[in-house]
Amino acid sequence: MLFQKLELFGKKMNHQKIYDNIISKAKFENRIKYKGIYYEEHHIIPKCLGGNNKKENKVLLTAKEHFIEHKLLTYIYKGNRKIAYAFHRMTYSKNGNYIKSARDYAYAIELIKSTPISKETKEKLSKALLGNKRLLGHKHSDETRRKIGEKSKLRIYKHSEETKQKIGNGNLGKKRSDEVKKGISERAKLIKHSRESIEITRKKNIGRKYSIESRKKISASLKQFHLNIKEKE
Q1: For the chain, what is the largest distance between any 2 Cα atoms, rounded to a whole number of angstroms?
Q2: Which region, left, alpha or beta, applies to residue 101 given φ > 0 means left and ψ of -120 to 50 means alpha?
């Protein structure tokens, strides 16, 4: 019933009073977590508004109450993006304890769209971007790209049976030159050999500790191995 009232009379109700009443009821019942009833912890004064993690600022609510309280906060602190985002996340939650209507979902989306980002948040985003070169279109050097390429070759990908079937169906009827066939065959042999070698080596070296010098030699050998594969392709 309270859900319907919130949806129909959202702009007319005393949201703060309803919010406080739910908190008072929960505190009066002296609720205890993990005692047969599912409860969730709620910050009475939201952290984004200066609330802390002290016991006095926390209360145990049912999932339904928790959802309602966050919706009420969007009416009480209209225009606050952090409050809007907190409610938005609840409508996306996979937790089946929340009763989420299509109207609530639509309201959460519109709330995020209509609530502007504060100047402070924009400045934080700007600083974060400046500190992350990749997000600013940073280009790797040729040496770095070579190292990334070598590392990626060390990964052995396994397709699912469904993917294998799709690949097989996609290749049906395709004609390849003798040169391409030879290259595929050699590549397959090398991959098979590398997988078998890795597995044998792994079993052999379980629990073994290498010196720094040995690690360098192994790393150099693996790099050379993959360079040889690349040359043969």
Answers
A1: 82
A2: beta
Calculate the average pLDDT of the chain: 76
pTM score of the predicted model: 0.50
Query: What's the one-letter identity of residue 88?
Result: H
Above 60 in pLDDT, residue 74? yes
pLDDT at residue 8 in the model: 44
Output the six-digit token pair for 60.
């145990």
Residue 73 C-alpha from the chain's centroid: 26
Give the separation between CA 125 and CA 131, rounded to whole angstroms. 10
Q: Higher confidence at residue 84 or residue 163?
A: 84
Across-strand partners of 42? 59
Q: Which residues make beta-bridge pairs with 58?
A: 43
Vertex 156 angle, CA 173 and 204, to 5°: 135
Are 89 and 105 in contact by the 8 Å Cβ rule? The answer is no
CA dist 140 and 137 (Å) reads 10
Best CA proximity match to 76, nearest among 35, 31, 19, 132: 19
pLDDT of residue 1: 45
Name residue 17's amino acid: K
- How many residues belong to the chain? 233
In whole angstroms, what is the distance from residue 106 CA to residue 66 CA? 19
CA dist., res. 152 & res. 146, Å (int): 10
The residue among 161, 148, 159, 230 whose CA lies nearest residue 194 is: 230
Instruction: Give the 3-state secondary structure of 68-90.
Output: HHHHHHHHHCCCCHHHHHHHHHH
CA-based torsion, 42, 47, 50, 51: positive or negative = positive
